[in-house]
Amino acid sequence: MGHPQERRRADGGRRRGDGRTAYGRPAYGGARRFIRALPPLVIVGGVAYDVATPPAYTAAPLFSAAPLIAAPFFSTPTTLLTGIAAVLASVGLHVYNGTVDQIPALTETLTVVTVSALALLVNRVVRRSGERLASARVIAETAQKAVLPTPVERIGGLQCAARYEAAQADAFIGGDLFAVQDTPHGVRLVVGDVRGKGMEAVEAVAVVIGAFREAAEQERSLEGVAQRLERALAREGTRRHGLDAFEGFTTAVLAEIPRADGAGERSVRIVNRGHPPPLLLYADGGLDVLDPAEPALPLGMGELAAWPDRAEERPYPPGATLLFYTDGLSEARDAEGVFYDPASRLAGRIFPGPEELLDALVDDVRLHTGGGSTDDMALLALSRPAAGQPERRRTMPVVPPVPSVPPAPPDRPGHQA
């Protein structure tokens, strides 16, 4: 027995005045500004300390620390200038105190010179490591594009946009996946999340994507596509041996959007295998959570299932947008441990197209988490243009004003107001 879908309406749009700075950049920018200011502040602090204390006290440790602080974060010339400034400050203070001809003064100055030279060496090592990391990033980005190519902007009469947000800044690909394809049966897509991390997860992603590309063209039903993915993962697990065998599973949601019928109507058929439910955003700001009527096990656990796959069909009206995502979105937490709820955050908001929706969503989740995340996040949005709707350039989302009384939406079959 199915249950009524959850119907969510806006109590008013949530306005934001921070523009595109919600990527966490204010926090990161503030940290960078502090680091930039730290070496000169340490030197100035050392000078103030030396002037304010008796000659028996020395600020040499602070002068030595300044170039070491600069080494990992600044260029070689800046690190060199910081070291020179530290040495000059040390020598100048000894001249000011009249101790420049004493052995302790010479020892302290040589210490600052030596540490500054070591800071230059550290800077060189860090820069070389950064160059190698940049090369690794290029390789990882190329691998991501090969495994998860960016979908075309228009496919089967729909507008399409996708995002892949890695949890780590230096990572480009992980266990989240998406693919969308125009087939003789309509537009078909898959969004999923492979259990595990590292190369095994990437290999599982490649298996699922490869099997989907083939099955989406050949299988007449969406249920058949899901079964092909199930068998592909089972074959790969059998092919492997010992510790290399697949021991995980893949949550996934598959969808099919047939071409419009004679009356111009379109629908979406969905098979959900243990994945977060998609959202259907309407042109008037309404939102439906497309929960499955019956729960199903993830891919890779099909032999434990008590019933076969069954696709569920929903209306897909003009102007509506389908949003698919992985649990990196719905399980993102703020500082107090509160999960991000995409349905409540998006309800009542209107976006010109899928690109704007995903831009705003990425902004909002990073604002929610403070810029950090512990899991990768894959997003896929498909919009059905309204009749006569012109092509739109990428713009910021349009947020409706807060009404005193939210207008009641027209009743839709199977929806709960």
UniProtKB/TrEMBL annotation:
TM region positions: 78-96, 102-122
GO MF annotation: an example: phosphatase activity
This protein's UniProt keywords: Hydrolase, Membrane, Transmembrane, Transmembrane helix
Annotated spans, Disordered: 1-24, 386-417
Cited Gene3D superfamilies: PPM-type phosphatase domain
PPM-type phosphatase domain residues: 155-384
Signal peptide: none
Pfam family, one: SpoIIE
Biased composition regions of type Pro residues, renumbered to the chain: 398-411
Biased composition annotated in UniProt, kind: Basic and acidic residues: 1-19
PANTHER family: STAGE II SPORULATION PROTEIN E (PTHR43156:SF2), STAGE II SPORULATION PROTEIN E-RELATED (PTHR43156)
Official protein name in the record: PPM-type phosphatase domain-containing protein
